[in-house]
## 1
Amino acid sequence: MNGKSNALRRFLAPLVVFLLGLIGFGLVSGDRLLNHSRDNHYVYLADSMLHGRLHLEGKPPHRNDWAKYGDKWYVSFPPAPGVLMIPGVAVFGLDFNDRLFTLFFAAAGPALLLLLMQLLVKRERLNRRPRELFALAILYGFGTVYFFSAVQGSVWYTAHMVGGVLILLYAIFALEAKRPFLAGLCLGLAAACRPTLLMAFPFFIYEALDTKPAEGEESGFLTWLRHALPQLKSRAFLGRMALFVLPVIAVLIGLMAMNWIRFDDPFEFGHKYLQIRWQNRIARWGLFNFHYLARNLTVALALLPWISSEAPYIRISLHGLALWFTTPVLLSVLWPKKRTVLYTVLAITVFALALPNLLYQNSGWIQFGYRFALDFMVFLFLMLALAGRRQGALFFALSAFALAVNLFGAMTFDRHWEYYPAVSTQTYFEPD
């Protein structure tokens, strides 16, 4: 009976966070939830699949981010959210509400992060009190760019929300590599929402090792690795890795087959065929190139609000705001109180996830904050939890600032365009 009541208590807090997400995100979404979004590309993809094809029937409803190959139109975004929408679209057709669909995934994200941190505490790999974990889960949902993304419901944000849930499930199943097949399946499906999420694999590799240091041990990562590799039980490790990799490969083969059918190229998702104004840029530099790094670093790390003496007094570039401005408490991951091997592994995972986004041809435009950070935000928050710094007055002051900033973004983005002046795609800082 004791075990059952402990399990109930453990799931009670995530359930509370899930309900807070449903209520909070639902209230801020407001009348948006009454109708599907304008950019409901996944609904059209689900409808196409239900009719036994991968292309649209006729032309798309508008010209924003659809791919054209030959004389047919396609949804170029990876298909997992569209596949999950198939039952709803089967019932409601093209009127299926993608915003309501997205809301439930959005609410699940902070709840699953709390559950993940609870599991780390239970296994004595994280030393945080329940109220500290609760504060971090709320900050993740309402004090980061997650908030404004959760209340949109359009194709790009639906991919973030569904992919975010899958990457959290991946991390939960990856712990100590106890469920390698499920971890691989979730990672593969996450990549079928946003391909960049595939780069979260370093976390599983570390978890699959059976020579992890004791919790709190602060030996350098390279020192630990040098001692760990000779002690590695290679057969058990390779077995776990095989179970992990198989479902990832299966999902990737499915995606490649879909690409081959649509675009005659297994490695082409269709973004090359998007009918967008920066096609010349893609043709010249490709989708990923070092050429884009300076711009993307600027967007992620340097953009601030534009202050004016005239109403509405605050304006924000359509490239968004710097990551440290929307969630300043994240700066503390640069100065952890203690740096364990797990902390370093999480940092490596963050870097692996961030790099393809920083080399991508698009900064995330149009956005309130740097939304591509959602690909690695889960692992940043695990670093924040592991950093060992007390949640004192400074933490709560910075968190209150983040909650206010992101509430403003969630309420104004795509609603009150007076705060988001229509400027050139090359305008990053306040125009003279």
## 2
Amino acid sequence: MSELWRLSAAALVAGYREHAFTPVDALDACLARIDDVQPRLNAFVGDHEAARRLARAAAEASAVRWRAGAALGPLDGVPIAVKDNLHVAGLGTSWGSALLRDVVATADEVPIARLRAAGAVFVGKTNCPEFAMQGHTSNRLWGTTRNPWAPALTPGGSSGGAVAGVAAGCVPLAVATDGGGSIRRPASHCGLVGYKPSAGLVARGGGLPEIFLEYEVVGAIGRTTADVAAMMAVLAARPLAMPLRADAASKSRVASAERPTAESPMSSIEPPRARRILFVPRFADHPVDAGIAARVREGADRLARLGHEIVEHDRFELAEAVNAHWPLLSSAGLAWLFANPARWPRNGSPANAAPDAEQCSDASRAALERGRTASAAELFGAFEAIGVLRQRLDAVFAEYDFLLSPATAALPWPVEKSHPLSIDGIAVGPRGHAVFTAFANAAGLPAVALPCGDVDGLPTGFQLVGRSGADAALLALASDYEARYPWTPLAPL
């Protein structure tokens, strides 16, 4: 029983169904694993005792359902971690900021409510940088999170605590947000599956002010594609696609299903077929670590061996304008938030007074100042660039089913640094490692990071991006790839 933390969500559910062990057993194993690795990783934050008390009550209720044969679905009794910018009733939501250190959510926000209704067991909140605005995970309130594969290095960000927890075996799944690659890049740094859904697939509401607007979406992090797909179906609150064989029985089953069943969590994912994939090994002239480039090319070759048509494009500049503008959007959102105290959860500030920016990190204060000084023309330029990008990507996806690229340009870097200072021997700025991901957020496209090998003992991954609404097809392709080329999902911590 002590080794249950090693199992995937699907394997845990299979054990529950066979009465080999219970959700309480699984929770105990995961909590013991957290106790073991937390001092080395600092993945979890907040009131641990409150989280454990609520988790145990949820696990006990799930065990009763499984004994009665009344399980709620493929996540019933599964331990799940929650990024600390999503409200879970009864737990704190600090957003990585001392300004919100005393905030305790009184209700779940919509995605969390859906997971709770599916029987998920929330084991705790995971660390993120302040306001989830950085590509590494460190803040003044909770400290720095470390990579389970190499604790001297960062797991990336902003979902660094989430990926550290999943890769270390603390939980099989984590729910997180992605506003420019915050799921996909950390997943790549930790050898995990990271999924960003199409815009609008997962409803928001009842949470923190959305300073990233609709560009930030709620997605899933896991060790297997099947687990991630099961979570995404619950978050979407509907099956993702009709089965390929639409006989009368399958039509009836899908039409009547509100969520995937515990017996067939992948039944809503359409089987893959041969696809036409645009392979973009680099964006414009941005450097990519040579080891990452080699592993991603191997991934493209593997997809070709699976029968997909790979078309390589050695010059891709569509994302350049959006990448140049991207930090401005969240900075403007932060400035708006500081100018509207009524939008803040309870934060200890005087009534109708702006929160004290001096309590924030240097990076947050710099972003706030950038947002405050931005002109209307600059903001218009950012939105115009997004509009142009969407039009041009429509033409790309009229010709190709998916786009393949690295998920990140750099391997994990030392935790003391906010970003790598150079990549492949070339000096880069704060977002030099992040050039491949924000365009999918800007265009509202589904994207997944998949492991594709290691570089000097560190995992890395590639990114697949689909047209808007192609979530089921993207998950099917990822599942097909994993079935043929499985990976090692747990860090040797």
